[in-house]
Design brief:
The structure holds two protein chains of two kinds. Chain A is α/β, with parallel strands linked by helices. Chain A has 28 helices and eight strands. In chain A, strands 2-3-4-1-5-6-7 form a seven-stranded mixed beta sheet, sandwiched between helices. In chain A, helix 12 packs antiparallel against helix 14, helix 18 runs antiparallel to helix 20 and helix 23 runs antiparallel to helix 24. Classes of the chains: A alpha/beta, B mainly beta. Chains A and B meet through helix 4, helix 10, helix 11, helix 15 and strand 8 of A and helix 1 and strand 5 of B. The complex binds guanosine-5'-diphosphate (GDP). The site of guanosine-5'-diphosphate has 19 residues of chain A, from helix 2 and helix 5.
Chain lengths: 670, 97
C-alpha cells in the first residue's frame, strides 16, 4: 500500500492477457499522460501514466500482457514480481470478453493474490456482436469483485471503471484509518484445490509460524499466506500440473455458467477466412514478402525526402552558424567544432528520426492488426534452422535497411533470449550505409564483376548472421522454454489514434535516449580527429591518426596495414558511410563522396590491390557496428556488457575473416 | 462430446476432428507453457490445419487459435471424438450436468 505509508499517489496496475485490449484501455484511461520506458534491468517495454480520480492523482502501470503469473517467461516474472513487491493498491484486470475461458485463467491467479481488484470486461462490443449473452452479474458473483463491461476503443465503460477503481482506493484508505492496517480479509479463497487442500493448509500454517517467529509480525509477506503456500506447491511439477488444471477447469466452469449462448458456428470465423488467404499454401509467402517490401518502402523510401530535407536544413544551419561565428571572430577550431561536431551531430540524430518513427508506425499497425503472429508462424521453419524463433525474421529483414531499425524491431519478440540473439546478430546484416563503400571499391577493382562482389558481401553477411545466431543460441541457455506456441489473435482494424500515440511514445523515447549518446559520440570523434590543436582529420598526428598508426600493423596480415585505411575504419564507427569521406580526405582526393569520386577511385587503386580491397570490404561489413547501432544495442539490451560483446566479437570476426581472405587469396594466386 | 479413439499425438490428429487432451508427455517449462496456453488434460481441441511448409500447425483450444510446432504437438496425446469440431467461440465442452 504505497500511498498509505508515503505520500506517493496510489498505484493501479493493468493486468491482462496479450491482445485483450490492454493498451487501448491504458490509452483510454491516461490519454497522453503516459511514458514508455523499460522495466528495470530488462528490455520489456514498460508503460506508465497518470490519471485523476476524484481530484486525486493515480499512477497507472501497464503490466506486460501475460497468460499466467507462473514461474516461466520474463513477462510473467515481471508482472508477478511487480504485484508481489510493489503491492499496487488496485489491480484492473482486463479481460477479453470473447475469450473468457483463457482470460479467466489469469483472473483467478490474480484473485488469489487478494489485492483490491476490478475486472474490465473488454471487447464487450465484439462479445455482443457474437451474441455471447454474457451474464455480467453472475460473473461478478463468481469472482466476488466488480465487473465493468468496457469497449476500450470507443472509451465506453471507462468512466464506470475508474469510478470503481476510485472506490476501491477510498475503501482501502478508510479501512486503513480505522484499523491501522489492511486487515487480512479472510475471504473464501477463489480457488479450492481439492486433493491439495490439506497440504496447502499445512504449508500455510508453516509459513505463518515462520513469519511470526522471524519478525514478530507478518508485515514482510505482502500477500496472503495461502498464496505463498500455493506458490510453493507450484515448484513441484506434479502438484503444478494439478494446480494448472484446476485453475483452467475453474475458468472454464465460470465461462460456461455466464455465457448464455452456445455459439458453435459451422462456418469459419472471419479471421479464419482471412487466414485462408494470408496462410494460403501458394500465396502466403508472396503476401509475406509484399508486406515486408511495403514495410521497407514506407520506412526507408518515404522517410528519404524528409531525412534529406533535414540534412539540407542542417547543412544550411551549419553554414549559417559558421558565417555568423566567423564574423564574430571566434577561433576557427571552435567554429569547426560547433558546425562539424555539434550541429552535424544533431543532424545525424535527426536524420534517424523519420525512418524510426515510420518503422514504429508500421510495427504498431502490424501488431494491432494481428499480422505479426502470422509472420512469425510463416518464418518459423526458416529461423529454426539457426536456433531462433519465427518472430526473429522481421528484425533481420529490416537490418538490410538500417541495423538500428532492425534492432528496434526485435521488440516484437516475446522471448528475451530470441530477442537478445536477434539484436546481437543484426549488425552483421549489410545495412544501406555500407552499400556506398561496397560500390566504390567494387567500381575501383572489380569492374566487370562488381555486382557479384557486392552481392557476395550481402550473402556473407546473411551467412555470418545465421552462423553467429547459431553459436549464440548454443551459448545462451534458454531461461524459459523456448518453444513456439503463439496465439493467432483475430484480425482487427488498426485505430489511427492509438497507432499515433504508440508510435510517438516509442519513437520519442528512443530519440531522446539514443540521441544524447550519439551526439556525444560524434563530438568525441570530432575532437579526436582535430586535436591536438593544429591537426585535422587527415593528419597522422591527430589523436585518431596516432591511434590509427598504432593499430595499422595489426591489419598488415589482412593486406591493408596502412594507417589511412585504419583511420577510415575508425571513423566508420561513427557511421559506415564516413569510411568513404575519410578515405577521400586522407588520400587528398576531395572530401565528399560523389563529387570527387573518380579521383578517389584513382587514389584507392594506388593504395589497395584487389585482394586487400576485398579484405577491407569484409572488414567494413563485419567490424564494429556504427555508433547509432551500438547505442541501440545498449538501449535495447539495457546492458553495457552486451554492447561490449558486440564490439569485441565483430572486431575479432572481421579481422579473422579479412586475414583469411587475404592470406588464402595470396596463397591461391601464387 | 465423448472421446472414443485411442491415444494419438496431437500432430497426427485428423484436421477438424474434435478431440480431448489426455496427457502431456513433455516435462519442465515447455510442458508448463503448453498447459498455461490451455492444453490441460480434459481440454477440447482440434487441428485446423498447417501453415505453408507444414509446420507449425494451427490448433483450436479454449476458444482461440494457437500456432505450435509439430515437435511440441507430438508431446500432446489426445483422444479423438466421433464428431467434427465446430470453429468459433463456444462454451466449454464439458458434458452437461
Ligand atoms: N472491438 C474492440 N476492439 C478492441 C477493444 N479494445 C481493443 N481492441 C482492439 O484489439 C486489438 C488489441 O488491442 P491492444 O490494446 O493492442 O491489446 P494489448 O495487446 O492487450 O495491448 C487492437 O486492434 C485494438 O484496436 C474493444 O473493446 N473492442
Amino acid at each position: 500500500m504505497a500511498f498509505l505509508i508515503s505520500n506517493a499517489p496510489p498505484v493501479a496496475v493493468l493486468a491482462g492477457n496479450p491482445n485483450c485490449g490492454k493498451t487501448a484501455l491504458f490509452n483510454a484511461i491516461t490519454g497522453s499522460r503516459q511514458r514508455v520506458g523499460n522495466w528495470p534491468g530488462v528490455t520489456v517495454e514498460k508503460r506508465q501514466g497518470t490519471t485523476t480520480l476524484e481530484s486525486e492523482l493515480v499512477t497507472i502501470v501497464d503490466l506486460p500482457g501475460t497468460y499466467t503469473l507462473g514461474l516461466g517467461a520474463l513477462d510473467e516474472k515481471i508482472a508477478r514480481e511487480f504485484v508481489v513487491n510493489e503491492h499496487p493498491d488496485v489491480i484492473i484486470n482486463v479481460v477479453d470478453a470473447t475469450q473468457l475461458e483463457r482470460n479467466l485463467y489469469l483472473t483467478i491467479q490474480l484473485l488469489e493474490m487478494d489485492i483490491p481488484m476490478v475486472v474490465a470486461l473488454n471487447m464487450f462490443d465484439e462479445a455482443k456482436a457474437l451474441d455471447l449473452q454474457i451474464d455480467v452479474d453472475r460473473l461478478k458473483k463468481h469472482l466476488g469483485i466488480p465487473v465493468i463491461p468496457t469497449v476500450a476503443t470507443k472509451k465506453q465503460g471507462i468512466h464506470e471503471l475508474l469510478f470503481e477503481t476510485a472506490r476501491l482506493i477510498t475503501d482501502a484508505k478508510r479501512t486503513y484509518k480505522h484499523v491501522g492496517r489492511i486487515p487480512d480479509k479472510n475471504r473464501i479463497p477463489v480457488m479450492k484445490y481439492a486433493a491439495l487442500e490439506a497440504e496447502i493448509g499445512r504449508l500455510e500454517r508453516e509459513i505463518s509460524l515462520k513469519a511470526v517467529r522471524s519478525s514478530g509480525s507478518n508485515a514482510h509477506l505482502s500477500l496472503p499466506h495461502r498464496w505463498y503456500a500455493v506458490k510453493q506447491l507450484e515448484r513441484n511439477p506434479n502438484t503444478l500440473d494439478i494446480i494448472t488444471k484446476a485453475r483452467y477447469d475453474r475458468a472454464a466452469g465460470i465461462a460456461d455458467s455466464v455465457i448464455g449462448q452456445n455459439l458453435t458456428a459451422d462456418e469459419i470465423t472471419p479471421s479464419q477466412a482471412i487466414d485462408r488467404l494470408v496462410l494460403h499454401p501458394w500465396l502466403a509467402y508472396p503476401i509475406f514478402l509484399g508486406i515486408i517490401w511495403l514495410m521497407f518502402h514506407i520506412t526507408f523510401t518515404f522517410s528519404q525526402p524528409i531525412a534529406n530535407s533535414f540534412a539540407e536544413f542542417f547543412a544550411f544551419i551549419g553554414a549559417y552558424v559558421n558565417n555568423l561565428l566567423s564574423s564574430v571572430g571566434t577561433p576557427a577550431v571552435f567554429n569547426d567544432f560547433v558546425v562539424n561536431g555539434i550541429i552535424a551531430g544533431v543532424g545525424a540524430v535527426l536524420e534517424f528520426a523519420p525512418p524510426i518513427f515510420l518503422l514504429f508506425m508500421v510495427i504498431t499497425i502490424l501488431e494491432d492488426v494481428g499480422y505479426m503472429a502470422r509472420a512469425a508462424s510463416l518464418s518459423d521453419r526458416l529461423m529454426r534452422a539457426v536456433g531462433l524463433h519465427g518472430g526473429a525474421f522481421i528484425p533481420m529483414i529490416l537490418g538490410f535497411g538500417c541495423n538500428v531499425t532492425g534492432i528496434l524491431a526485435a521488440r516484437g519478440l516475446d522471448d528475451p533470449r530470441d530477442r537478445l540473439i536477434s539484436i546481437m546478430v543484426n549488425p552483421l546484416i549489410s545495412c544501406a550505409g555500407r552499400l556506398p563503400v561496397y560500390v566504390l571499391f567494387a567500381a575501383a577493382f572489380f569492374t566487370e564483376k562488381r555486382g557479384l562482389v557486392v552481392f557476395s558481401l550481402y550473402i556473407l553477411g546473411i551467412f555470418l548472421a545465421a552462423l553467429v545466431a547459431r553459436i549464440f543460441s548454443v551459448l545462451i541457455k534458454p531461461d524459459s522454454a523456448s518453444i513456439f506456441v503463439m496465439e493467432l489473435p483475430p484480425y482487427r482494424l488498426p485505430r489511427p489514434g492509438a497507432v499515433f500515440i504508440q508510435t510517438w511514445e516509442r519513437g520519442r523515447e528512443f530519440l531522446v535516449k539514443a540521441g544524447t549518446v550519439i551526439l556525444t559520440a560524434v563530438s568525441v570523434v570530432w575532437l579526436l580527429a582535430n586535436l591536438p590543436l593544429g591537426t585535422g582529420p587527415g593528419d597522422p598526428n591527430s589523436y585518431i591518426g596516432r591511434f590509427g598508426t598504432i593499430l595499422a600493423p595489426a591489419f598488415r596480415p589482412a593486406g591493408f596495414g596502412d594507417w589511412k585505411a585504419v583511420v577510415a575504419l575508425l571513423s566508420g564507427i561513427v557511421a559506415k558511410e564516413l569510411i568513404i569521406g575519410t578515405l577521400g580526405v586522407l588520400y587528398g582526393a576531395g572530401t565528399v563522396y560523389g563529387t570527387a569520386e573518380t579521383g578517389l577511385i584513382y587514389a584507392i587503386r594506388e593504395a589497395f590491390e584487389p585482394l586487400s580491397a576485398y579484405a577491407f570490404l569484409v572488414m567494413s561489413l563485419v567490424y564494429i557496428p556504427c555508433i547509432a547501432t551500438l547505442v541501440s544495442i545498449k538501449r535495447e539490451t539495457n546492458s553495457w556488457k552486451w554492447m561490449a560483446v558486440s564490439v569485441v566479437y565483430t572486431v575479432l570476426l572481421g579481422w579473422i575473416l579479412a586475414v583469411i581472405v587475404y592470406q588464402v587469396g595470396t596463397f591461391l594466386v601464387h | 462430446m465423448r472421446p472414443s479413439g485411442g491415444l494419438i499425438p496431437l500432430n497426427a490428429l485428423e484436421h477438424r476432428r474434435a478431440a480431448v487432451v489426455v496427457t502431456l508427455t513433455g516435462s519442465g517449462a515447455a510442458r508448463q507453457k503448453l498447459m498455461d496456453m490451455g492444453l490441460t488434460p480434459g481440454a477440447h481441441i482440434a487441428v485446423e490445419g498447417t501453415v505453408p511448409l507444414g509446420d507449425p500447425i494451427i490448433v483450436w483450444v479454449r476458444g482461440s487459435r494457437l500456432a505450435l510446432r509439430h515437435r511440441e504437438a507430438a508431446g500432446v496425446l489426445v483422444s479423438s471424438c466421433p464428431q467434427q469440431y465446430r470453429w468459433g467461440y463456444r462454451r466449454s465442452h464439458r458434458p452437461k450436468r
